[in-house]
């Protein structure tokens, strides 16, 4: 009976970390994305960029001017007149196309920045969730270890009652059981702190039960959709569009329509005026924009190299973690068999308390190793997906 109770604790351990009727991680993440003030603020940045693009495309207002004229002919008479003129700047055809491309680049850049902020937000919450999940799983493991220590203490009491072990051995089993309870309480405090830190990071006020049994899968993709790389590419596009825009020496021409009322005649006229670029050819502005685009090219190349290196490292790390997980699973099976045998031997006085506790601790340690390996695999998947550009709200939730 005691043996079955002990083994069932380990068998059910993997299911104990979940909470009935708790949200899974995707539901929790969805709530965070919908309610996050940080993401709402970032979304406003996109709308601001759209308004900036509209500002780039709008036409200048016309200028209306009027004059009152006083005439004094040679015959000594007095007379009066007036002049009204309306001037409208007209954008040259090539400039309109350049402004359109520049405004589109601004909006795309803002969208890329929003996606980067969203991806960072999701990655950070995902990584912190794994921290909370690890502490919650270790807490559950410690509860199982406490229950096993209680089982060993119960056996020790029975053996002491019949005189097969000393009082010192029985008290030692009790001390170990009480120590496990203390460790459980300490881990519980840490787990609660991590839980509320996770809620704070997500921007969620109400308490939500979260199921920690969530596995992050690696999505198949490449680094071309990396959010940091995409933002740099769109910044380069903005710089190039600005360089093309500033290369226009002439941007507008002024067309003026005038109406003059003179004493003996009415004069209607149309005038065309444009700047004469004798000294200011906008060479410096154009050169600065070109250099900015060139600088962005180097930054993009550097970012690609860095991302590729990190991506390769993470893939190798994942392969090694998978092998390590398999080895620990095999070790756990063997140690579980040994624990079962030592438990039976302890019941019939064929082994010592210390030997049994040593085997029990080895089983607990191996289970702890597996928890940490699984958490490391989840964190590895989160970072790989982020690098590949797969970690966004739509892909992760759906």
Give structural notes.
Residues 1-22 form the signal peptide. The chain has helices at residues 2-11, 13-16, 25-35, 37-57, 93-161, 167-202, 227-246, 283-347, 353-388, 393-397, and strands at residues 63-71, 79-91, 252-261, 266-273. With 398 residues, it is an alpha+beta fold. The protein has one domain (28-395): Up-down Bundle (Outer membrane efflux proteins (OEP)), CATH 1.20.1600. The protein has a four-stranded antiparallel beta sheet. Helix 4 runs antiparallel to helix 5, helix 5 runs antiparallel to helix 6 (167-202) and helix 5 runs antiparallel to helix 9. The longest helix has 69 residues, at 93-161. It is rod-shaped and about 145 Å long.
Distance between the termini: 46 Å
CATH-defined topology: Outer membrane efflux proteins (OEP)
What is the name of the CATH superfamily?
Outer membrane efflux proteins (OEP)
Q: What CATH architecture do you see?
A: Up-down Bundle
Signal peptide: 1-22
Main location: membrane
Organism: Arcobacter ellisii
GO molecular function: efflux transmembrane transporter activity; porin activity
């Amino acid at each position: 009976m005691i043996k079955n109770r002990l083994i069932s604790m380990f068998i059910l351990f993997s299911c104990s970390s979940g909470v009935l009727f708790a949200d899974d991680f995707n539901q929790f993440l969805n709530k965070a994305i919908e309610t996050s003030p940080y993401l709402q603020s970032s979304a406003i940045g996109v709308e601001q960029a759209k308004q900036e693009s509209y500002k780039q495309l709008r036409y200048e207002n016309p200028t209306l001017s009027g004059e009152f004229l006083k005439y004094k002919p040679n015959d000594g008479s007095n007379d009066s007149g007036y002049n009204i003129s309306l001037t409208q700047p007209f954008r040259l055809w090539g400039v309109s196309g350049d402004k359109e491309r520049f405004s589109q680049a601004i909006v795309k850049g803002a969208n890329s920045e929003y996606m980067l902020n969203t991806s960072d937000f999701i990655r950070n919450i995902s990584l912190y969730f794994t921290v909370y999940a690890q502490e919650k799983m270790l807490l559950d493991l410690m509860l199982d270890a406490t229950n096993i220590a209680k089982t060993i203490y119960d056996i020790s009491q029975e053996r002491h009652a019949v005189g097969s072990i000393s009082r010192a051995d029985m008290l030692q089993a009790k001390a170990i059981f009480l120590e496990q309870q203390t460790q459980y309480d300490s881990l519980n405090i840490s787990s609660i702190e991590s839980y509320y830190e996770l809620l704070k990071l997500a921007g969620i006020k109400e308490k939500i039960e979260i199921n920690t049994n969530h596995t992050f899968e690696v999505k198949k993709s490449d680094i071309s959709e990396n959010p940091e790389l995409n933002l740099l590419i769109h910044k380069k596009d903005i710089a190039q569009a600005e360089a093309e825009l500033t290369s226009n020496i002439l941007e507008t021409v002024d067309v003026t329509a005038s109406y003059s009322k003179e004493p003996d005649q009415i004069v209607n006229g149309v005038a065309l005026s444009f700047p004469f670029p004798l000294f200011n050819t906008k060479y410096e502005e154009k050169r600065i924009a070109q250099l900015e685009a060139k600088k962005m090219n180097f930054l993009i190349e550097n970012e690609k190299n860095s991302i590729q290196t990190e991506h390769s490292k993470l893939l190798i790390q994942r392969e090694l973690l998978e092998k390590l997980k398999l080895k620990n699973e095999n070790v756990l099976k063997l140690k579980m068999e040994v624990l079962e045998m030592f438990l039976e031997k302890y019941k019939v006085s064929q082994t010592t308390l210390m030997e049994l506790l040593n085997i029990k601790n080895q089983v607990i340690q191996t289970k702890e190793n597996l928890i940490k390996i699984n958490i490391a695999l989840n964190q590895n998947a989160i970072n790989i997906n982020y690098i590949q550009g797969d970690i966004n709200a739509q892909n992760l939730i759906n």
